[in-house]
Amino acid sequence: MATDTGKAIPRFPAGFLWGVSTSAHQIEGAADEREPSVWDVFTAGPGRVKDGSTAAVACDHYHRYRDDVALLAGLGVDAYRFSVSWPRVNSPGGLGFYDRLVDELCAAGVRPVPTLFHWDLPAGLDWLERDTAARFADYVSVVAGRLGDRVTKWITLNEPAEHTLLGHALGVHAPGRRLLFDALPVAHHQLLAHGLAVGALRAAGATDIGIANSHGPTWPASGDPADREAAGFYDLLLNRLFADPVLLGTYPEGIGELMPGDVASDLPVISAPVDWYGVNYYAPARVGAPQGTPTGFGGIDMPAELPFSVREIEGRATTDFGWPVVPEGLTELLTGFRDRYGDRLPPIVITENGCSYEGVDDQDRIAYLDAHIRALHTALEAGVDVRGYFVWSLMDNFEWAEGYARRFGLVHVDHATLERTPKASYHWFREVLRTQR
User: Fold this and answer.
1) What stretches of 16-172 show up as alpha helix (H) in DSSP?
2) Calpha distance 209→325 (Å, rounded)
3) Residues 371-423: pLDDT tens digits?
4) pLDDT band at 26 (very low <50, low <70, confident <90, very high)
């Protein structure tokens, strides 16, 4: 995958926020103060992680955070999106780690942007239970009360769609349930948790709050009505189910009656105004009618009994994860959101975008990021109000059910020695940030 290195990336507006992202369970390790999470329980089972690994050590960011903040400062990013581990906060003294991390970031001139839930639910809690949403709001109040004097930008949840689909519908992520459509209460309770968290953050004085939802265009496999209908249903489940309640205060037609509890009373809570809307973008999906056999989805088998099948996007380069590289899909997604949601859409921040490639001289990652940043600028030129872009990820990490086999980082981590080595993409992105300023 080549990029036009002779052509500078277009200028973004003054004040545009440039950053990188990580998550607690993927980098911190289980050191010291941290209670077990559903991921600790899940990875203890045989065959659940492809290389048999766990995140017990991960990148040992818990002990090496000062070195990692130095890497952030050297990169020149404006902001660092990390996640706060709810199981760590539940343990006496655990919140002190984030005190120290936030202080280190502020001293380095890097804005801390915490995500309050990135899949590592405390063991013993369950998103099938409504009470978990209330428990989450209580936890958010504790974190905001401790860090709110230095943190000015907050993210409630990361990718509730994937946590619902992969963890509760298909069973390939923690907690490992295979409920298919009976997993819908998990989606509703996460969305309710988001709304309650917005209220808790507002009560603590926060004024810059968003959510990080994953989205991508859905392309029908053909013009056949059955393929178009299947693609529409897929789009509803992966995109509109999680955006409509937050932005419009409604569920897509036919979905609300499938949700638990007093949905009419919950929707005003879920749609409490946010200051910006986070989008994690990786690729579109090409979807058609069921084929009677399992189909692939990002390296995951989708059951044959689903009312759609996910097809290969042909003629595209793929990452080492097998994901198609479609930068123009980001432009399509953002302009489509502008058209669908109109004045109900707040400013957008790209909270994740990245790719898995091997090697320290990672020219394919450079080409990928170059193309996606240009596609983002095209959306800006088309009138989409985009305020920031975060690369996934700062460093190679524990990639959930893939273990350590996938490398998304700008910094290479030797998982035997934990040595950090900035890749070619790190140096490239540092130069991009320098020229943007």
Assistant:
1) 24-27, 38-43, 61-75, 86-89, 95-107, 131-147, 160-164
2) 30
3) 999 999 999 999 999 999 999 999 999 999 999 999 999 999 999 999 999 99
4) very high
Per the DSSP assignment, residues forming a β-bridge with 213 are 279
CA 75, distance to chain mean position in Å, is 21
User: Judging by DSSP bridges, how do beta strands 17-21 and 79-83 pair with one another?
Assistant: parallel
Token pair, residue 164, equals 């619902």
User: Does the pLDDT of residue 425 top 80, yes or no?
Assistant: yes
Other beta carbons within 10 angstroms of residue 14's beta carbon come to 7
pTM for the full predicted model: 0.97
Active-site residue identified among 28, 159, 162, 399: 159
Q: Indicate if 358 belongs to the active site.
A: no
Residue 97 near residue 42, CB atoms below 8 Å: no
For the question of residue 159 being annotated catalytic, the response is yes
Q: What is the pLDDT of residues 88-130, one digit of tens each?
A: 999 999 999 999 999 999 999 999 999 999 999 999 999 999 9
Closest CA to 273 of 345, 375, 171, 325: 345
* Beta pairing, strands 386-392 & 411-413: unpaired
CA distance 343 to 241: 19
Task: Report percent pLDDT > 70 for the chain.
Answer: 98
Q: Which CA distances in Å does 215 have to 51, 126, 147, 159, 331? A: 28, 24, 29, 9, 12
Which residue is catalytic, options 352, 358, 381, 431? 352
Residue 2 in this model has a pLDDT that exceeds 60: no
pLDDT at residue 32 in the model = 81
The amino acid sitting at 185 is P
Task: Select from 437, 351, 425 the least CA-distant residue to 5.
Answer: 425
181 three-state secondary structure: helix
Cα separation, 83 vs 216, in Å, equals: 23
Checking DSSP bridges between strand 411-413 and strand 420-422, what pairing results, if any?
Answer: antiparallel
Q: What domains does the chain contain, in order, with CATH numbers?
A: 17-436 (3.20.20.80)
Contact (CB, 8 A) for 255 and 235: no
Burial of 137 by CB count in 10 Å (0-12 exposed, 13-18 middle, 19+ buried)? buried
